[in-house]
């Protein structure tokens, strides 16, 4: 089979590797599509050491495929040709430690100790492959968006119009939370955000606080200042200036869920957090419930999240695909077609 192998910074190669041997409790999945994630881009540009990826590893962890071989001890719930999402965090006995080397960019992936709704999730054939491959990032965004229990009628601001920010907004809208605004500095990305049903704000062209007041109205904080009437902020940007801005303008008892991976320390003023009883929490990964929620949204056509798929490359073009994803010029989600 063809596999994408990591050798070092900016050095990935498509090579022939032996087809995995299916154990008694294992399942072999033929990958149909795989997505390039921000983590994959980090591995490609900065090296795999920080991501527990070693030279010689098969990389990729966002994937959808079809079951082509089943070990004799696997439950009959899993059937041949079933279309499935493979959970990279549980696909291997090594677990989360090697999730970033889960063979997503290989023609086949071996799912060890396969169990339905644990490391294999059924995907309806009616869901287009370009949408089904988004289950993993959608689950990340959903976990972050719902980590602090937003309710229908609340006003939510998502910072960052990348894949995870768009996924967070799409999941909120699919659950009936319609007052969602995506903040970014790229008008092209914001056009994509609007196609998902979100309000948009370009913080390069418009003051963030005043822009949100214009869209959602205002409240008076304990210092007598008019601040945006926003209940929840979801940080998928990782921009220190935005984080500081949110803390400074947060209304009393509002919340902030941080999905973004910050690359540097950020100095913040705890006084505003204290005075506003502002709640901040981090969000990492996803749960079984997030995955099933996302699959339900796709099955019931509650989201058109596949609007964010901007490029599709064949496996032999994966080096070019990584360059496009890295440059991020009119590119959001870059997909590899393994058929």
UniProtKB/TrEMBL annotation:
SUPFAM superfamilies: GroES-like, NAD(P)-binding Rossmann-fold domains
One GO molecular-function entry: oxidoreductase activity
InterPro entries assigned to the protein according to its UniProt record, in alphabetical order: ADH-like_C (IPR013149), ADH-like_N (IPR013154), ADH_Zn_CS (IPR002328), GroES-like_sf (IPR011032), NAD(P)-bd_dom_sf (IPR036291), Zn_alcohol_dh (IPR050129)
Superkingdom in the source lineage: Bacteria
Domain annotation Alcohol dehydrogenase-like C-terminal: ranges: 164-299
Keywords for the protein's UniProt record, in alphabetical order: Metal-binding, Oxidoreductase, Zinc
Membrane-spanning ranges: none
Keyword hit for Oxidoreductase: yes
Annotated Alcohol dehydrogenase-like N-terminal domain residues: 24-115
Required cofactor names: Zn(2+)
UniProt-listed Pfam families: ADH_N, ADH_zinc_N
Family: Belongs to the zinc-containing alcohol dehydrogenase family.
Name of the molecule in the record: Threonine dehydrogenase
